[in-house]
User: Fold this.
Amino acid sequence: MRLLSSLLIISLLFFFACSTTQQREITSIKIAFGSCANQDKPQPMLDIAASQGLDAFVFLGDNIYGDSRVMDTLKAKYRRLASKSSFQNLKAKADIYAVWDDHDYGENDSGRHYPYKKESKEIFMEFWEVPENSDRRTHDGIYGVEYLKKGDLIVQLILLDTRTFRDDLIFRRKEDTLNGHKNDYIPNQNPDSTFLGEAQWAWLETIFKAPADVRIIASSNQFSHEYNGWESWTNVPHQQKRMLELIKSTQANGVIFISGDVHWGEISKMKNEGAYPVYDVTSSGITQTWDIIEPNNNRIGNPVAQNNIGTIEILKSENAVKIEFALIDSSAQKIELHKLELSEISFDK
Ligand SMILES: [Fe+2]
Assistant:
């Protein structure tokens, strides 16, 4: 009897030791993100985001439909967003970060020639509560980096400015359809044209060289999809190539894009010869949808036509780092899911 009791106690101790060790071994960081939110519409997607157990939520642009050169109008529209219970709920549950796209920058499809970019930036910094001592306030544009850290897991959140420095895009003419071009824009092949501007490129190089397990790049515009003639990195292809080259030259591991803008959700995967593939998880929109989803040969899984948010969860154990991408719909279901190991997006195999 005594032997049996001893064996039982030993077994129980072993079981508890194993489960505690297992719990201790896994560290996780979870972020969610979304874009394209009309301040005059209800935003239940933000309540769904708030229920996901997040460390952070990233607003990926078109966070309001500002579309005004009158700064008081822009401020009033931000106030309408702030007054929403769903926005307040999310803000109470997760750290909030933001980049902008054209409509909250101030004007549809605008870039570096938009004359109110400084004034608009001031309002952006105040609304998103960017700390007074942040570098984001001292240089031109809104780009910056944040670090999410748990245990020895380090996630870089790289917040790009795709508006302040970007050259005007080239409008498509009727005859350009002969070359397969469509919608508003054809690729700008001029090597002097820029998407990020030299200062932001130089800064990004230093960020890529800093230690991190995973680097999530918040870019309002899509990066890894196939050209479709709407605004995106594909309209300045030599700058898209420069990004791929920068990943290689800095040997930056774990680069993943998150993007918005297009009013549908999808996960894209772009080859990078001599390196690992670049994933781009697009979530759009919080309130907006679009009737025509463009073809995209780089898409994995299916596109999401209804309102959605995206999530990325990073799970680090002793032996591996696992990453899960998801797109979550308005009934809180994960309707697109993609899992990978960090080693698949790393130079260190
Ligand atoms: Fe946009």
About this structure: Residues 31-345 form a domain with the Purple Acid Phosphatase; chain A, domain 2 fold (CATH 3.60.21.70). The chain has one domain: 31-345. Helices lie at 2-25, 44-50, 71-82, 85-93, 102-105, 117-127, 198-209, 237-250. Residues 2-25 form the longest helix (24 residues).
